[in-house]
């Protein structure tokens, strides 16, 4: 199937690609895989039960990428998909997921992406997921990603989860189980505006000795938007965990941040930091004295904060 | 009524007094006021409905103290009391509360102290509450303090809430409403050991412009004890709030810390820090190299941490 102009535009936003990328790729559009190809190191096949994907990254491969973006352009379309990603032992790979919705209708468009990720012994994964919505109509753009990730002994993973503009409603769920000497880093960036709602629930269980986890969340709430951020970190062994959430609140927005530290082992070290506040006045004045308008200065500060 | 040796011993632990102090005082023993006297600036009377106290601190007075300790010595006694404290406009006073339980029986002894505190315009209150249990039997010592505090415009209050050894079960509830330019500081110190359970719930609502709140919690969980710390900070105006909880976990103890920051105004600045971990190894080694045994070194570090 050919990609039209709109498809190309959305794919650029959510996956940073111009047209169809080389290597392993699966592009899902309005509930169907319109483009799929495996590579020598990465096999993409259909999930036998749920109609989603199984992405298998071969043990020991290095520096390979797989793109699995999803686009929704059919008005009022609802898509639910189950994908499984298996990163083989000692492999090193990057998964670029993400979802973009274009909706000009009056009905809600919605994508529920249910991901299971297994990072085998000694493997390293980088996982990038961007969410984006466009279209000026009343029809909502809803994105509910759900991710369960398991890290085996000595594995490591970095998840970068970003919500750019245009998503009216999101309920993000991330659950992680961390084995011995395994380490996980989650970076979350979220921007809400208008009347948008965003909820993020992160639950991390550090089960193995010398396991570690780090959550870095930054968000901006503009206009009358609402954000709820929950992150729970459970240490069941000698481990290290840190959660950091910083939020900028503007206009009539409301933000709730509810982290939880749960130490179930005397050798668990868990820490947390959070701050909610407005843009620093001095920063604004400095940029405006350099010739920027107030609006430009605010945008510059927010871009820096969410980068 | 005369104080016996045991009464004197418990009063010293929970209120730092030797016998009956001068000034305004109410000593409650096993459900009854055994000693009561008002002072020129502080009037103590019976609560018309609930049989507890009404403590009225006159407007404008300076540097006055009132002692209202509670002791339970009757085996398996259950005591519930409602007290109201009113700090008059521009007054400056210290309230020393606290409860000690001696229980050598096989039945549970329990005190539920329900306190309402109103700090009027421009007044300043220091409130100290210590909890302590003793007795080697199976009978539990249970203390459930519940405090609602309201700070009017320009008022300030510092609450120091300490649980020393010996309390088997506690569920502490503190709710605060903070007015314009008013400021509240809560200092909590908690030690649990054996099979003890401790839960602390703090809910703070900063309602007035330029209001501020600060919660500093430090706790130590030893043996197989359990602690749950919840602190929720809601900013409804241009305000500043900070919650800090540090905990030392030892042996087979378990600790949960669940703070919540809720910003409902774009000019609310709310921050939080938490850390759960064990005693730093270097600190221990340093003290032991100075001649302390391991046990003495641990005690020295814990005393410093909870001071």
Secondary-structure map with pairings?
Two copies of one chain form a homodimer.
Chain A lengths: L4 H11 L8 E6 L2 E6 L4 E5 L6 E5 L6 E4 L2 E3 L5 E10 L4 E5 L2 E4 L6 E11 L4 E11 L6 E11 L4 E8 L5 E10 L4 E10 L4 E10 L4 E11 L4 E10 L3 E11 L4 E10 L4 E10 L3 H9 L4 H13 L1
Parallel strand pairs in A: 1-5, 1-6, 4-7, 5-8, 6-9, 7-10, 8-11, 9-11, 10-12, 11-13, 12-14, 13-15, 14-16, 15-17, 16-18, 17-19, 18-20, 19-21
Antiparallel strand pairs in A: 1-2, 3-4
Helix pairs in contact in A: 2-3
InterPro entries (chains A, B): Fe-S_cluster_assembly_SufBD, SUF_FeS_clus_asmbl_SufBD_core, SUF_FeS_clus_asmbl_SufBD_sf
Family (chains A, B): Belongs to the iron-sulfur cluster assembly SufBD family.
Pfam families (chains A, B): SUFBD_core
Task: Name a few traits of the molecule.
9-stranded mixed sheet, homodimer, 21 strands, 11% helix, 6-stranded parallel barrel, 3 helices, mainly beta, 307 residues
Average residue pLDDT of chain A: 94
- The quaternary structure here is homodimer
Rg for CA atoms of chain A = 20 Å
Indicate the proportion of strand residues of chain A.
Answer: over 45%
Distance between the termini of chain A: 34 Å
Biggest interface, chains and residues, is: A-B, 32 and 32 residues
Number of domains of chain A: 1
* Major sheet details of chain A: 9 strands, mixed
Number of beta-strand segments of chain A? 21
Strand arrangement across the biggest beta sheet of chain A: 3-4-7-10-12-14-16-18-20
Structural class of chain A: mainly beta
Helical fraction of chain A: 10-25%
Q: How many helices of chain A in DSSP terms?
A: 3
Spans where pLDDT lies below 50 across 5 or more residues of chain A: none
Molecular shape of chain A: globular
Note the run of SSEs of chain A as H and E.
Answer: HEEEEEEEEEEEEEEEEEEEEEHH
Family (chains A, B): Belongs to the iron-sulfur cluster assembly SufBD family.
Domain SUF system FeS cluster assembly SufBD core (chains A, B): 85-305
Pfam families (chains A, B): SUFBD_core
InterPro entries (chains A, B): Fe-S_cluster_assembly_SufBD, SUF_FeS_clus_asmbl_SufBD_core, SUF_FeS_clus_asmbl_SufBD_sf
């Amino acid at each position: 199937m050919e990609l039209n102009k709109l498809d190309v535009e959305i794919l650029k936003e959510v996956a940073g690609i111009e047209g169809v990328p080389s290597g392993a790729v699966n592009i899902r559009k309005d509930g169907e895989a319109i483009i799929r190809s495996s590579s020598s190191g990465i096999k993409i096949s259909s999930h036998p039960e749920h109609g989603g994907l199984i992405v298998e990254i071969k043990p020991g491969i290095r520096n390979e990428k797989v793109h699995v973006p999803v686009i929704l352009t059919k008005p009022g379309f609802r898509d639910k998909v189950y994908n499984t990603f298996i990163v083989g032992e000692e492999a090193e790979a990057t998964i670029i997921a993400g979802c973009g919705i274009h909706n000009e209708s009056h009905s809600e468009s919605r994508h529920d992406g249910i991901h299971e990720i297994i990072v085998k012994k000694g493997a390293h994964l980088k996982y990038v997921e961007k969410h984006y919505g466009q279209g000026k109509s009343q029809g909502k753009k809803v994105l509910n990603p759900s991710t369960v990730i398991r890290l085996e002994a000595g594995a490591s993973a970095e998840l970068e989860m970003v919500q750019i503009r245009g998503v009216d409603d999101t309920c993000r769920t991330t659950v992680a189980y961390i084995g011995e000497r395994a380490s996980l880093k989650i970076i979350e960036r979220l921007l809400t505006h208008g009347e948008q709602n965003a909820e993020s629930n992160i639950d991390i269980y550090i089960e193995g000795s010398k396991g570690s986890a780090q959550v870095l969340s930054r968000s901006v709430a503009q206009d009358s938007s609402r954000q709820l951020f929950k992150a729970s970190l459970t240490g069941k062994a000698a481990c290290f965990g840190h959660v950091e959430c910083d939020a900028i609140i503007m206009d009539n927005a409301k933000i709730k941040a509810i982290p939880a530290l749960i130490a179930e082992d005397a050798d668990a070290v868990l820490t947390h930091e959070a701050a909610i506040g407005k843009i620093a006045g001095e920063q604004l004045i400095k940029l405006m004295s350099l010739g920027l308008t107030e609006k430009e200065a605010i945008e510059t500060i927010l871009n820096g904060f969410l980068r």
